[in-house]
Amino acid sequence: MPRPLPLLTAAVAAILVAVAAVGGLVAPAPAVSAEAASAPALPTAPRDSSVSIGGCPVETAHVGSRYFSLLRSNDRAVFSLVGALPAGLSLDAESGAIRGVPTTAGSSRFTIVATLHGDRGEYGPCVIDVGPSLDPPALATGCPIDDAVVDRPYRFAMAASGPEGMVYSATGLPAGLTVDPATGLISGTPTVPSSSVIAVSVSGLGGTSAKFGCSFTVRPPDRPEIVSCPAPDAVVGEPYSGAILVRSDVAVDYGASWLPAGLELDHSSGVVSGEPTVAGRFPIIVDASNAWGGYARRSCEITVRES
After folding, report:
1. Quick one: CATH architecture of 225-305?
2. Among the listed residues 171, 155, 296, the one whose alpha carbon sits nearest the alpha carbon of residue 221
3. Which GO biological process annotations does it have (predicted)?
4. Are 277 and 237 in contact (CB under 8 A)?
């Protein structure tokens, strides 16, 4: 009687399949290409969420330029992000507004999350690319024109055009002067005469800058000028007060010689005061000097009358 070979063969085949499954002899999975593995995921939103999100920001961003984009969702959803916005930008959770001034070029990737009545929706990944500054800074004022004077307050305001957030600097400034990096104001009171070269510059976000080398002189103050003498008339035994008036860049020290008896001089204010005791005409010499060698003198006269 012939053997049932087809039936036996089928049984053997079934046994071999079972053994292969137990022993881990499974067919390899189809190969995935490198391009497919590295391809970015497409923006998706969960199908089981009732929260809808309008999409990713599409506005162009540049370093130093104001940026604004409005995220959209149904009803009054509250927004948040998974990931990070570019430096200088922030999200208003209630309105969905992304705004600010980007400070660094580059790309930032994030996912938008919207929450409404306990339900949550997501959309992403989104990307904001920040390009370089469109408006590099330029110094409009150039170098300081006027000399500074020792012991006299000095001010010079640099001005520049360019992006927001510019930073001013000035190196090599004389002693007593400083620069405000936010406004570009050079100010202070120089303390010593000097002649030097200073470097003034303004830098914008993204590293762009404009720079000048400038000659800068701090000169000694002009010599004082005596404008008027003390009041010429006095009366014996009555209070007297008269001032030496001086035009000067800086503080001066006053002097007076041969004052009538009973009168004296305040050397810091230039005021002559007191009660004269003797009548007569008194020629006097008044002078004024500053700490930098400036000096002036003048002949004056005080007449003291009998009471």
Report:
1. Sandwich (2.60)
2. 296
3. carbohydrate metabolic process
4. yes
CA distances from 184 to 133, 170, 203, 244 (A): 21, 9, 11, 40
Tokens at 253, concatenated: 């020290």
Write down the CATH number for the domain with range 41-131.
2.60.40.10
Q: b or e along 107-116 (b: 16 or more beta carbons within 10 Å of the residue's beta carbon)?
A: ebebbbbbbb
Q: Is 32 exposed, middle or buried (0-12, 13-18, 19+ CB in 10 A)?
A: exposed
- Euclidean distance between CA atoms 39 and 87, whole angstroms: 26
pLDDT tens digits for range 184-236: 999 999 999 999 999 999 987 666 678 889 999 999 999 999 999 999 999 99
Q: Are strands 119-131 and 61-62 parallel, antiparallel or unpaired?
A: parallel
The pair of three-digit structure tokens given for residue 34, joined into one six-digit string: 């490198």
Task: Report, as an integer, the average pLDDT of 277-297.
Answer: 95
Amino acid at 306: E
Domain ranges of the chain: 41-131, 138-219, 225-305
**Can you give the three-state secondary structure of 37-106, one letter per residue?**
HHCCCCCECCCCCCCCECCCCCCCEECCCCEEEECCECCCCEEEEEECCCCCEEECCCCCEEEECCCCCE
Count of residues making up the chain: 307
Domain covering 138-219 assigned CATH 2.60.40.10 in the classification: yes
